[in-house]
Write a structure and sequence with these properties.
The protein is of the alpha/beta class and 276 residues long. Helix content is 37%, strand content 19%. It contains twelve helices and nine strands. Bound molecules: S-adenosylmethionine.
Length: 276
Amino acid sequence: MLGTMADLPPLREVIAKHGLSASKALGQNFLFDAQLLGRIAAIPGDLQGKAVLEIGPGPGGLTRALLAAGARVKAIEMDRRCLPALAELSETYPGQLNVVEGDALAIDHDDLMGEPYAVVANLPYNVGTALFTRWLSASKWPPLWSSLTLMFQLEVAQRIVAPPGSGAYGRLAVLAQWRSTAKLAMKVHRSAFTPPPKVMSAIVHVTPAGMPEGVNPRTLERVTEAAFGQRRKMLRQSLKGMPGAVEALAELGIDETRRAETLSVDDFIALARVLG
Ligand code: SAM
């Protein structure tokens, strides 16, 4: 089906035809630049014949690029106004696009996809972190998703890929890095969006890595929550409420006067392992 992109009307025409004025409440900031969209769709690698989950296709700019790359796309969109425009796209790429109307937070993505899939999305900023946390907290590991290629506000993207010691390093970095590899793939200027958001954006690319043995994800979550909940305090203070945590620091040779942001992801993994 490659090449059919040329038959489609410009996205701005689609927006005008279907009266798709951007809704702030739905976090709508649309991308129209086909070249940029093609570069985004290339981040996960060759998508020919692959299953892709897109959240929030909107008028379908990114969807077009994914379809042109040969992906089989299932897209969840909450805004009914976008459905006719997406139906036209389905007609251009028969059998390649399946649109589900609904709230992506209320839908089981693994059930919907039923096979390994890549997630590619220009996420609505108001639900982006909640979705991201859910993908990374999958009970089965490696998860059914094979990669996440996601647009975030730059500040959130920086928190996801932050190294220890940096101000941006915290719970999100540990969650994104303890059994995955997270990279900042591309910065996107605010002027690329319609309407332009107040801040810069960036695309993060995440792939699952091996799961460290003997770590209970809930324990890791609790220890990072406690440690970063009072990030300016020494660990002996911030971890005081967690039974056995201060003793675990001693056992691992981690100085209890250090602060959470100085611990590596491996340190947190080791702590969770000792705490069981
Ligand atoms: N993919 C389009 C693009 O790149 O131009 C639109 C991206 S826009 C930032 C986010 C899209 O997510 C909007 O179309 C919005 O209606 C949709 N959306 C917002 N909340 C949603 C939710 N909870 N579930 C599914 N879609 C949602």
